[in-house]
């Protein structure tokens, strides 16, 4: 599994040893305070008390223009425990070679080169941060964020602790900091750049070359990332293939806490996301839980098995929401291994309580990958079936199939009950017709009662 450290080594392996000899500390001991470092590896060591002081000393040298943004950055910097969790205000003029990538429901994404680059360690001799220069980054420009809400920033704050909890969490897209477009005044999240784009784009371009082993590698990365999120008591709330990113050799989860309007507080009743990935309880207006993320993960499993986005040829409207609440799911692809199918169906089970937790999912996928290494022919046979699937014609995407996060309609419980009553009435009518045709000897009341009690609506 690659990490940000290995990527740094790959990008900057040309630097000489002398350039990295002035680290703030050596051999696990901070040379400024004499205490043990909280973190260390071949490329950096980190003393949180000393580096917190360095950050504090630099507070007067920058300002975002928004007190809430400044407070978010300062609090994060004071608690930084290793270089991969650094978070800072990044002046817009440090970005060059800016190129448009895509547009989503709440922002648009650009690729850029960050001229200064991220912090690696404190250089004691030069009394400044040593950085890796000219790093490629993704810039997520947040629509209508000129008056960014404190509620939105609080959501970002809760997710930033993920980087503090894991030294090399490569399955979560790193957030380097915040910037601002000087013309539009819209705020920008500066994110790790993943070279192969989002999962939907990646599958469209590479599905024909993917084996089950490679798909399971990506699925395991996503599961591990989600496990990191859930182990911190957090939820993603908007897992779909547009928020899962592929770098050269691994997959990572992105857009944590960013899938909602940046300029307003959001009602707990509002549901934002991509409808085909949203759990039925959410579409009924129920609270979000970690089990809701598991449902979305199940849909991602289907996407990796089919090479298609879910429900591409129908409108993503209120009728689809009703059908999902009724149990409508993507059709399982022929040749999918039975163990994979069973786990996928458990993940998208209508009852959240019956969905597996992410830690067990991680263990199951690890077992499958081990089975492949040991030559289990279940997966080699599945690869043969997969070759047949690859020859099928591509599905045309409906003009009303929306794969961007947005405010979704919810199924009113009262409406759902009324719809169920109408369904019962249709069943009763049909049962009466059947009784008449068969000259049934039972009373009409008992026949109606039997039909209703034996139809689970």
TrEMBL record:
SUPFAM superfamilies, A to Z: Protein kinase-like (PK-like) (SSF56112)
Start and end residues of each Protein kinase domain: 95-369
Keywords: Kinase, Transferase
Transmembrane domains' residue ranges: none
The keyword Kinase is annotated on this UniProt entry: yes
A Pfam family reported for this protein in Swiss-Prot or TrEMBL: PK_Tyr_Ser-Thr
Positions in coiled-coil regions: none
GO MF annotation terms: ATP binding; protein serine/threonine kinase activity
Record-linked Gene3D superfamilies: Transferase(Phosphotransferase) domain 1
Protein name: Kinase-like protein
Species: Rhizophagus irregularis
């Amino acid at each position: 599994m690659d990490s940000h450290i290995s990527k740094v080594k790959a990008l900057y392996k040309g630097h000489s040893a002398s350039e990295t000899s002035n680290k703030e500390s050596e051999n696990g001991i901070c040379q400024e305070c004499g205490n043990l470092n909280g973190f260390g590896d071949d490329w950096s060591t980190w003393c949180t008390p000393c580096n917190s002081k360095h950050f504090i000393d630099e507070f007067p040298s920058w300002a975002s223009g928004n007190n809430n943004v400044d407070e978010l950055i300062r609090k994060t910097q004071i608690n930084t425990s290793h270089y991969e969790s650094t978070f800072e205000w990044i002046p817009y003029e440090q970005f060059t070679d800016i190129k448009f990538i895509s547009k989503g429901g709440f922002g648009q994404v650009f690729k850029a080169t960050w001229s200064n680059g991220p912090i690696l360690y404190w250089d004691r001799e030069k009394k400044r941060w040593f950085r890796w220069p000219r790093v490629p980054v993704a810039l997520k420009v947040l629509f209508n964020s000129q008056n960014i809400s404190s509620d939105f920033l609080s959501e970002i704050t809760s997710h930033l602790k993920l980087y503090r909890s894991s030294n090399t969490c490569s399955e979560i897209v790193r957030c380097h900091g915040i910037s601002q477009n000087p013309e539009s005044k819209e705020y920008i999240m500066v994110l790790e750049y993943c070279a192969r784009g989002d999962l939907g784009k990646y599958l469209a371009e590479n599905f024909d070359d993917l084996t089950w082993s490679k798909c399971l590698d990506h699925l395991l990365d996503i599961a591990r990332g989600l496990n990191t999120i859930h182990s911190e008591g957090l939820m993603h709330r908007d897992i779909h293939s547009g928020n899962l990113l592929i770098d050269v050799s691994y997959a990572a989860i992105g857009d944590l806490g960013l899938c909602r309007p940046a300029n307003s507080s959001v009602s707990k009743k509002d549901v934002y996301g991509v409808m085909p990935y949203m759990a039925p309880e959410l579409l009924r207006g129920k609270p979000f839980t970690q089990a809701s993320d598991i449902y979305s993960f199940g849909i991602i499993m289907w996407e990796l098995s089919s090479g298609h986005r879910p429900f591409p040829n129908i409108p993503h409207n209120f009728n689809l929401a009703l059908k999902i609440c009724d149990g409508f799911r993507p059709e399982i692809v022929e040749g999918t291994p039975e163990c994979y199918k069973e786990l996928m169906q458990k993940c998208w089970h209508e009852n959240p309580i019956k969905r597996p937790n992410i830690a067990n999912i991680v263990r199951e996928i690890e077992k499958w990958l081990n089975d492949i290494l040991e030559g289990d022919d279940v997966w080699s046979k599945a690869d043969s079936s997969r070759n047949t699937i690859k020859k099928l014609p591509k599905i045309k995407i409906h003009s009303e199939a929306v794969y961007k996060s947005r405010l979704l309609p919810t199924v009113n419980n009262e409406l759902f009950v009324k719809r169920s009553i109408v369904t019962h009435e249709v069943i009763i009518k049909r049962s009466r017709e059947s009784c008449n045709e068969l000259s049934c000897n039972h009373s009409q009341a008992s026949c109606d009662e039997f039909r209703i009690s034996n139809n689970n609506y």
